[in-house]
């Protein structure tokens, strides 16, 4: 652990300037991941720039376009329990409540959730090589304890997974990430936010240096009538997903008119295959239909010694969660998955 | 690795269990260490120090948080309740009474965190069933295995308050 300096920013301009002062200056909001990484000697900030005092990054409100604006600094708890989120985007509420614990969700922010690091055992151990931590040093996970690691989109250099639950819903909902940076404001489609490891696994996402997430915008369609989140894990609470599935459906006349399926715990990004969703259009919402989508989603999946089971788990979870989405009231936090 | 070997300490104002304090702390000092080592409030326990066990749970501005993953400098102006601010030996909080009644602890190390977490859970009002209480207490581990009794105690206070 290194010592570091600390300052507070009360507007984004000041925050950006502080961040630009030194390459190892880092923003801090909830700090639940950052402070833990620092304690494990995995990150070495020069100065923490506390952004909690920036008023413009707070609040949840409806947008003129009919969507919902989630401030980057709103806590995961306040987001999950917000009346508009619960009523219009219950899928998001459920994914948030499936992750971590109340104490962590009370501190953790929406912006920070997108930026949390992988929990790959080898990334989290400063004593061993890891291409994500020390580029070029190697990947012990490929031949090690890789139960939690990727089955899709992995590379020779990295088989880590992105651990968020919340982001699985944000992928399914096609959220848009608002950021500000030294060159101005821009928006990033959720599908373009996180990145596959390729030969540069040190980069988790496409945020540029010093850029700051200001908000997450949800489009009008919230799949409030037919949705479900199924999280398979080694214990029933406070564990990262082995495989998770967020499903949103729009049904018309007994047929699927619109479908969104995103997977967590299987890749370096929340995994979504729009072609598989398109296969469902016009079909009845049956196990056979969802199995067809599952086959397409898992096309090309490759497991390792301890996680090959995840391919079959994911296939079954996609089918089961599709059926669960037909009756969202059967799903509630703390409940064993039904069906 | 360290570019600032000795960054200056910061002054932080905290209200803890109703009493006001001014502390001078280095930026990296956790709220947990500030409470235990500077204010001698050792009821809040250091278990894992990594946000996995919940022994360090305190109530900050009305919300239960992990004091081990919170920097003291980031809580300037906050109102904090620790186990020392919840009941006294002669006047136990109803949840403390229920813990005694239901044998909800053995070694007692996790208990201050369990009590703070349980008190906050009851105030939040998001847990309506035993299953939900159990789920929302998952951030507090009990290695003695008293969890079913802990949930019994919380359910009793919850039902008595109805």
Protein topology:
The complex is a heterodimer of chains A (339) and B (162).
Chain A (H helix, E strand, L loop, with lengths): L4 E4 L3 H9 L4 E4 L5 H6 L7 E4 L9 E3 L5 E4 L4 H5 L2 H6 L1 H9 L3 H6 L2 H6 L50 H7 L3 E6 L2 E6 H4 L18 E7 L7 E7 L10 E10 L2 E10 L6 E2 L1 H7 L6 H11 L11 H16 L15
Parallel strand pairs in A: 1-3, 2-3
Antiparallel strand pairs in A: 4-5, 5-8, 6-7, 6-8, 9-10, 10-11, 11-12
Helix pairs in contact in A: 5-8, 10-11, 11-12
Chain B lengths: L9 E7 L2 E7 L5 H8 L18 E4 L2 E4 L11 E4 L12 H8 L9 H14 L5 H7 L10 H14 L2
Parallel strand pairs in B: 1-5
Antiparallel strand pairs in B: 1-2, 3-4, 3-5
What can you tell me about this protein's structure?
The complex is a heterodimer of chains A (339) and B (162). Chain A has helices spanning 12-20, 34-39, 76-80, 83-88, 90-98, 102-107, 110-115, 166-172, 190-193, 274-280, 287-297, 309-324, and strands at 5-8, 25-28, 47-50, 60-62, 68-71, 176-181, 184-189, 212-218, 226-232, 243-252, 255-264, 271-272. Chain A is an alpha+beta fold. Chain A has a domain at 226-330: CO dehydrogenase flavoprotein, C-terminal domain (Enolase-like, domain 1). The longest helix of chain A is centred in the last third of the chain and has 16 residues, at 309-324. By secondary structure, chain B is α+β, with helices and mostly antiparallel strands. Chain B is built from five helices and five strands; from the N terminus they run ββαβββαααα. Chain B is elongated. The mean pLDDT of chain B is 96. Chain A binds chain B through residues 1-6, 22, 24, 28, 31-32, 35-36, 38-40, 44, 46-48, 50, 52, 77, 81, 100-104, 106-107, 236-238, 332-335, and chain B through 1-7, 10, 26-28, 30, 49-51, 54, 57, 63-66, 69-71, 73-74, 117, 120-121, 124, 126-127, 129, 131-132, 134-136, 138-139.
